[in-house]
Amino acid sequence: MALAIRDVREHDLDAVLALNNAAGRSILAIDAAQLRFFYEHADYFRVAEIDGELAGFLIAMREGRDYESPNYRWFSSHYPQFLYIDRIVIANAFRRHGLGRIFYCDVTSYAEVRVPLLACEVFLEPRDDVVVLFHGTYGFQEVGQQRMGDSGPQVSLLAKDLPSYGYVRDTYLEHGQLPAEPWLAERLHPTTEPHA
Asked: What pTM does this model have?
C-alpha cells in the first residue's frame, strides 16, 4: 500500500466534494463554490492518496481569514493566532487504518512552526465518542461550547497548545523567517501558482 499526503490540486476538487458530501451527518455538506473558497484561501488543504485513490483530506485555516463559519469566528474572537481545522474526511474504505492520526500529525507539523494553537470542534449532537476520545488522546482540551446557529447542533470547541511554537518564534520568526526547506513551505494558492 503506497500512501502519499500532498497539497490538493485543482483536478482533485470533484473527488473531494463527492467525498465530503458522502461523509454523513458528522461533516457539513458543501457545494462547489464553498470548496473553491477553500481551494483558493485555505492555508492547509491536503489530500491522502492510497495506491493512487483519494482516501481523505483535511482543510485548515489560520486566523485573519474572511470565513463565515461560526466556529472559526469563535476562535477568532478568543485567540490572536491559531490554525483551525475546518474538516477532515476519510473515505469509508480507508477508515480504521490510522489515516486520521497521520493527517493530525501532518497538520500539527505544519501548525507548530507558525502558530501557538491548533483548534477544531466536534459535534456533540449527535455525539460520537470515538471522535471525542480521538481528540482527547491527541491532546485537545475543550475551551468552549456553542450551538451552530439557532437550531444547529451543539459543538465542543477544542484547542491544543503547540509548545514547539515558542522556540520557533524566538529562533526564527522574530529574526526573519523559517529556513527555505520544502517541508516548511507554504501551500501555493491558485493565484500564486506559476503558469504553464
From this structure: 0.92
